[in-house]
Design a protein that fits this description.
heterodimer, A: 658 residues, alpha/beta, 7-stranded mixed sheet, 17 helices, 23% helix, elongated, B: 763 residues, mainly alpha, 38 helices, flat
């Protein structure tokens, strides 16, 4: 059993598991942090960005000044942003049988895999995952395609050139494999390969293994997966949460008794407690608005935003903010808000019960109804008519490199009254802000990551008791910035096996058993014999039939019945005779007693030698030796068949036959 | 015992001895015992037993029962003890598995022992006990056997009996008892683990506090030995107990203090980046046993730290605390613990790393450490350390991860440190460090007042109230506060959805306003609307808020304003009182009405003059206000409708309100009576109508207004009323009927009856 690790990002995993005869890809995450190296894509003509000076080498060589621009001491690539794909060379991706998706954040690389690698298999995911995943992809494509950029920089990627660049460009990995965003056509084609599944549904893969999604509590439709055969169980835990937010709670019990548990997608901010961060978010929002400033919240169009809107719904009245407009701007804003209300069966119990009242499960419906929350596909059109300040704007993309957020950063960045509050943990906020420096706007970092923290992981592992844990290497040591926090790592026995990008792990267990079925008529013919109390044995002669990874013992073909008087034999009827079977032997030969028996039967001059594997009984007179080992006995005598048979019979006396 | 109770008693005794009957709960039995206690104290018990043979029968049958119910058994034992303590006929019942029985039996043994020793052994008993009464001999032998036992339960019970003995009996014979038993107690220390360590500590402390302690008898050695044998967690309570003792050897005190300091010394050592300044006195240097405890498990580490912090906190407040008090290292340790809990410590040692992992985010330790740090504010420290204290407090106040309870504690500790900080010598204003800290604190407070968590808003407001109460007059504070947005936000919180927060906001705005620091909120909601005065706003809360807490808070603020002569009040005093009383009189919450009477009393006192050092409600002041003034006063009282408010309150269905009103009217009557004036108003039509109205009120028809009142009529009514009698009646608790023994007996029987009926229903 092997695990091919195609992504080094612990929360955007992409691993391939070879298990029995199947090849299963676990998640398909896309590392978008590469875009932080690029200049933002402004929605409207932006003189500041377009007038940035080109970057030149120390010696004055300016051959890169068209591709690289300098802003406040940082160098950015002036080109269409590109993404860092999962490793494609480590394993032939056309051999992947299925892809299991655990949540909508972990499928963003799907079109690259399904459309460009010869993949012919099936993708499994839950309905909300697919629907919201589609929204995320649609938003991404829209953000990038609506601001066409003529230039595509490639000179800087040259290995020799890259070495000369300043950090972080110098240290960026595998820049040659970075790719531009996919198209909507590719998205649609990729999504068409998905088969929808429900929690706890058992899906047979080629009769070899069974895969089952379990609720993971992290996002709408988010799942962990169990991959099991009759005798082995592998659990794949991706983004999971034990906090009470909107999704169905995590199913922990089904993860018990795993041989291997692959653990990814833990919180990226282990020291920040989501509750505290939500409090911080609300307080800063209120303080800014009270002073007449605007609040910008760069976010994804689904996920934490639902919880934030719910908190604000309860908070705005107490903070005296009921008259402040909240704007949600995204090409998919409307669909996202509506989708969240229709996936009732995927929601936590509280929200599910609301549906029966009937009430919308999320209170943002009421915010929309009372005009407190308004949503727009983009800043163009209706929004510009309705726009009122001070206000709160939720918009993407959290990387601050594309999407409507770029516009608001430029618009509001110059005033210290305004605040940008980062809630998505995927991007370093300082790096995200770099191309906007110098910035007068206040910046607040309130990362809200509801995924498991290390205390929860340790409880989970104690609860489900896997034999082995496999995880990204980042989880096996404290975070680099807090090397003394030994509590911020996975602590389990035996120690977790770690992986890094482009590594192949041999998973630490051997398959030992395979289930074989016996046909009823064959089973009927067995005559078990009790050899020890409680243990019976029977011999079976049969034909092993293996098809679709199922093994069946079938009765051996019978010799043709002699028909009537005609005994003409045709070659095709020539079936080998089943010989009368010799009895099977069991037991061991006690050497001393055996020697005594030999003496009783007239053999003399017997010598016993101990060997590494057993004994040799030497009949010197007869020039014969009997080699007794644990699993075999040999009588070696020189052409004396009578003697051999006599000795054999004496040996057999000590063994049981059946 | 009254005949009705005597009549009920046999039935109850029958219930108690009947194993098929359910026994009433422990509270009832306790009440029953209390009652028997008063009965036996009131008259001869023998007579009681003769008149109520059912009681003897009860004791007899319960003690003879094969399988008595523990509750009834313990009740009977204690009842028997009440009646016949001198009867030493009870078996030793300590072994009973029921805690009630074991404890009752233990106490009984102690009483029997004390009684037995009272007679002959007075004087100089021999330690060997050969001249002790047989009964006492038997008990002591039993205790000795138990102490030798290998069963922890038995040892525990023997130790408990001894603890009670040394706690209650201070006769010279106890010294003999200790001499006889101390070798056995010392033997317990040799065992590993030490059995019943809690009880052992209790016993040793009990002995040390008794006269035996002052006569040495090797007790101090035993204590020293015990301190070193017990585990750090077990030794903590003993060490604290030793340090509380009035006179014990200095060496023992030093050892005990060392035990308490050990865990903190350990923390200091673990937190140290480099050899730091001198730490704790010798004997407290973080020994390996403490380190082992820290490393053994999270709960052991947390438990030991919390215990040490709590003990040291208690100790600091005592006059006999060790001197010199290691203030600086304690401060350093508290700061280190808080940093470990916050994850902001960067230790280099292994123990430090472990502590960091164990303590990160541990709310229990955070709370204990903040409490402790707050107590340390009573002392001083080097400026560099005080700066660290404020820094760590600010860290906690700022951190989004501080739980509501931790935040509250952090605010409390901050307040204590702020108020303890020295004033700048030159200008009587805050010293520069404090001013600097305020500059950082107020933005944090501002953010906390905007928190979505109501507990955070609430503790922020409480802090603001306290700090303003003390510093409202300090120029630097006023300046910083007014420059912050805090006063406006506080005003905003008057409309908070959470009633506790509204109440705290009321108190805070009241305090701010008293110092002229209140600014009307200009929220983004209605920036254009000119806000009304705070008085109007608070009055609005008083008359409309659906919850009691904010309304009570408003009444407290108004009373304070009246006392302080607040500008808003002084503007039109009568108008203020009239409006407040009117609102309060209609309130459904009795505490609001009672506070209304408090306010009325303050008003009265201000008009009539302070009663001085006398009891405010003392009768007949010789130097009453001059008649002319009195008449004016009475007129004023009529104008603000104080009489109507007070008279209505006199018949309030809530007793405290009626009592307060009664006191107020008595005070007024006493003030007004000596002056002559129109006393002969006896049957004027006014009085008749007032009395008629009062009668209707008394009958519960409170809806009727009193109408315009003439001062003369009021005084006449007051004179005619038996206010003293009313006060006496009100002084009796309202449930004096329900508390009667008769009612108790009836209730207990009724419970049985109900159960009986249920049983019948089942068939």
């Amino acid at each position: 059993m092997k695990l091919y690790c195609l992504s080094g990002h612990p929360t955007l995993p992409c691993n391939v598991l070879k298990f029995k005869s199947t090849t299963i890809m676990l998640d398909c995450g896309l590392d978008m942090t590469s875009t932080l190296n690029f200049l933002p894509l402004p929605l409207v003509q932006n003189p500041r960005l377009s007038n940035l000076p080109g970057w030149s080498l120390k010696d004055g060589n300016a051959f890169l000044d068209k591709e690289l621009k300098e802003c406040s001491g940082h160098v950015f690539v002036d080109s269409v942003p590109e993404f860092c794909l999962p490793e494609t060379e480590l394993i032939d991706l056309s051999t992947v049988d299925v892809i299991l998706i655990s949540n909508y954040h972990c499928m963003m690389a799907l079109p690259y895999i399904t459309e460009h690698t010869g993949f012919t298999g099936t993708v499994y995911a839950t309905e909300p995952t697919v629907q919201i995943g589609r929204l995320l992809m649609e938003e991404l494509v829209n953000f990038i395609e609506r601001v066409p950029k003529a230039q595509s920089a490639s000179l800087w990627k040259n290995k020799d050139t890259q070495r000369l660049l300043p950090s972080p460009l110098k240290d960026a990995v595998e820049v040659s494999t970075w790719r531009r965003c996919y198209t909507m056509q590719e998205v649609n084609s990729a999504l068409s390969k998905i088969q929808l599944v429900g929690y706890s549904q058992k899906i047979e893969l080629f009769g070899a293994v069974q895969v089952t999604p379990l609720s993971s509590g992290y996002a709408l439709g988010s799942s962990n997966w169990i991959i099991q055969s009759h005798y082995e169980k592998v659990s794949y835990v991706s983004g999971s949460s034990l906090l009470t937010t909107h999704p169905q709670p995590m199913d922990q019990a089904s993860l018990k008794n795993s041989d291997v548990l692959i653990l990814t997608g833990l919180t990226q901010i282990p020291t920040a407690n989501p509750d505290g961060m939500v409090g911080e978010f609300c307080s800063n929002l209120a303080l800014t608005v009270r002073n007449g400033g605007n609040v910008l919240v760069p976010c994804y169009p689904s996920g934490v935003i639902y919880d934030l809107l719910e908190c604000l719904y309860q908070y705005i009245d107490s903070a005296g903010l009921s008259s402040i407009p909240f704007y949600f701007i995204s090409p998919v804003a409307n669909s996202s808000l509506e989708f969240s209300q229709i996936f009732a069966e995927w929601l936590c119990h509280n929200k599910q019960t609301k549906v029966y009242l009937p009430e919308p499960p999320f209170p943002h419906a009421e915010l929309i109804q009372t005009n407190k929350l308004k949503h727009y596909p983009s800043i163009h059109g209706d929004f510009s008519n309705d726009f009122r300040q001070p206000c709160v704007v939720f918009t993407g993309h959290p990387s601050l490199r594309f999407g409507d957020v770029v516009h608001f950063m430029e618009l509001w960045g110059k005033s210290s009254l305004n605040t940008v509050i980062f809630t998505e943990p995927d991007f370093s906020y300082l790096e995200a802000l770099a191309p906007y420096q110098p910035l007068a706007m206040k910046c607040i970092y309130c990362p809200i990551d509801t995924r498991l923290n290390f205390i929860q992981v340790s409880k989970l592992l104690k609860e489900v008791q896997p034999l082995h844990v496999v995880c990204p290497e980042q989880y096996t040591q404290p975070p680099p910035a807090q090397s003394h926090r030994v509590d911020l790592m996975i602590d389990c026995q035996p120690p977790a096996m770690s992986y890094r990008r482009a590594e192949v792990l041999a998973l630490p267990f051997r398959r030992r058993y395979e289930k074989i079925e016996i046909m009823p008529e064959l089973a009927d013919s067995l005559v078990p014999m009790e050899i020890k109390p409680g243990i019976s044995l029977a011999t079976v002669s049969a034909v092993l039939h293996t098809k679709d990874n199922k093994h069946v013992l079938q009765p051996p073909p019978r010799p043709a019945q002699p028909t009537g008087g005609k005994k003409r034999k045709r070659p095709s009827d020539d079936i080998p005779d089943c010989k009368v079977l010799k009895p099977l032997l069991s037991g061991s030969i006690p050497v001393e007693q055996f020697v005594q028996t030999l003496e009783k039967h007239g053999f003399s001059d017997i010598k016993v030698e101990d060997t590494a594997k057993g004994h040799i009984v030497l009949l010197q007179e007869a020039e014969t030796l009997i080699q007794i080992e644990e699993d075999s006995t040999h009588i070696i005598c020189d052409n004396d068949e009578v003697l051999r048979v006599r000795l054999r019979d004496l040996v057999l006396k000590f063994l049981q036959k059946f | 015992m009254d005949p009705e109770c005597s009549r009920l008693l046999p039935a109850l005794c029958a219930v108690l001895v009947d194993p098929r009957q359910p026994v009433a709960d422990d509270t009832c039995l306790e009440k029953l015992l209390d009652w028997f206690k008063t009965v036996t104290e009131a008259g001869p018990s023998l007579l009681l037993l003769q008149e109520n043979p059912c009681l003897v029968e009860l004791l007899f049958r319960v003690l003879k029962a094969h399988d008595p119910r523990p509750r009834v058994l313990s009740f009977s034992l204690r009842l028997a003890g009440l009646f016949a303590a001198q009867e030493d006929c009870f078996q030793y019942l300590q072994g009973d598995s029921s805690l009630f029985v074991a404890s009752a039996a233990g106490q009984l043994l102690v009483h029997i022992l004390a009684l037995a020793m009272r007679g002959p052994a007075e004087g100089h008993p021999s330690p060997q006990g050969c001249d002790w009464p047989a009964c006492a001999q038997k008990i002591v032998c039993h205790v000795e056997d138990s102490l030798r036992s290998t069963a922890t339960l038995q040892v525990t019970q023997a130790l408990n009996v001894l603890t009670t003995t040394f706690g209650h009996c201070h006769s010279p014979w106890t010294q003999g008892l200790w001499v006889r038993l101390s070798p056995l107690v010392a033997c317990l220390l040799e065992k590993d683990p030490i059995p019943a360590s809690h009880s052992l500590v209790d016993l040793l402390l009990s002995v040390a506090r008794s006269p035996v302690g002052s006569s040495d008898c090797g007790l101090w050695e035993t204590l020293a030995q015990t301190l070193s044998h017990l585990s750090p967690t077990q030794a903590g309570p003993l060490a604290l107990g030793i340090l509380k003792l009035q006179d014990c050897p200095q060496a023992l005190k030093t050892q005990a203090f060392g035990v308490l300091l050990q865990p903190l010394a350990c923390v200091l050592k673990a937190a140290a980046q480099a050899p730091g300044p001198p730490g704790f006195p010798e004997g407290a240097t973080g020994d390996s046993i403490t380190v082992d405890t820290f490393l053994s498990s999270k709960s052991a580490c947390v438990g030991l730290l919390c215990q040490a912090l709590a003990h040291l906190e208690l100790l600091q407040l005592l006059p006999q605390r060790p001197s010199p008090w290691p203030q600086a290292p304690l401060l350093r340790a508290a700061v280190a613990i808080l940093r470990f809990c916050h994850g902001s410590a960067a230790p280099t040692s292994d123990v430090g790393g472990h502590l960091c992992a164990v303590l990160a985010g541990c709310v229990r330790v955070q709370r204990a450490a903040l409490d402790f740090l707050g107590t340390l504010s009573q002392g001083t420290g080097p400026q560099e350390l005080v700066t660290q204290v404020f820094a760590v407090l600010l860290e906690y106040l700022t951190s989004p991860d501080s739980s509501p309870m931790v935040l509250k504690k952090a605010f409390q500790a901050t307040l204590r440190w702020l108020l303890g900080s020295p004033k700048a010598p030159s200008c009587c204003d805050l010293d520069p460090h404090t001013q600097l800290f305020l500059g950082e604190l107020l933005p944090v407070l501002r953010k906390r007042l905007c928190s979505p968590c109501w507990e955070a808003r609430d503790s922020g407001l409480e802090f603001l109230t306290q700090v303003t109460r003390h510093w409202g007059g300090q120029a630097a504070f006023r300046h910083a506060l007014l420059a912050s947005e805090v006063p406006e936000l506080t005003g905003q919180l008057l409309r908070d959805p959470e009633s506790y927060v509204r109440a705290s906001a009321v108190t805070a705005t009241g305090q701010l306003s008293s110092w002229g620091l209140y600014a009307t909120p200009t929220g983004p909601e209605h920036p254009e609307v000119q806000q009304e005065s705070l008085f109007t706003e608070l009055l609005h809360i008083l008359s409309t808020d659906s919850e009691g807490f904010p309304r009570r808070a408003v009444m407290h603020v108004f009373t304070q304003w009246l006392k302080d002569g607040h500008a808003d009040v002084a503007e039109d005093l009568e108008q203020f009182v009239a409006r407040v009383l009117q609102a309060a009189s209609q309130d459904l919450d009795w505490e609001v009405r009672a506070q209304g009477l408090e306010l009325a009393l303050v008003f009265l006192e201000q008009l009539l003059g302070q009663p001085g050092s006398r009891c405010p409600y003392a009768v007949a002041l010789p130097e009453a206000a001059p008649p002319a003034t009195l008449a004016q006063v009475l007129q004023a009282l009529c104008r603000v409708q104080l009489f109507e408010f007070a008279l209505r309150a006199l018949f309030d269905c809530d007793r405290p309100v009626a009592q307060k009103s009664c006191d107020l009217l008595l005070f007024l009557k006493a003030k007004a009576t000596p002056c002559g004036g129109p006393q002969e108003a006896g049957a004027s039509p006014d009085v008749v109508s007032v009395e008629a109205a009062l009668q209707r009120w008394q009958a519960g028809e409170q809806g009727q207004p009193l109408g315009e009142l003439e001062p003369e009529a009021v005084m006449a009514v007051l004179r005619s009323m038996d206010l003293e009698g009313l006060r006496g009646m009100l002084a009796k608790s309202s449930d004096h009927m329900e508390k009667s023994p008769q009612s108790l007996l009836q209730d207990m029987l009724a419970t049985v009856g109900v159960l009986g009926e249920n049983e019948a229903d089942c068939y």
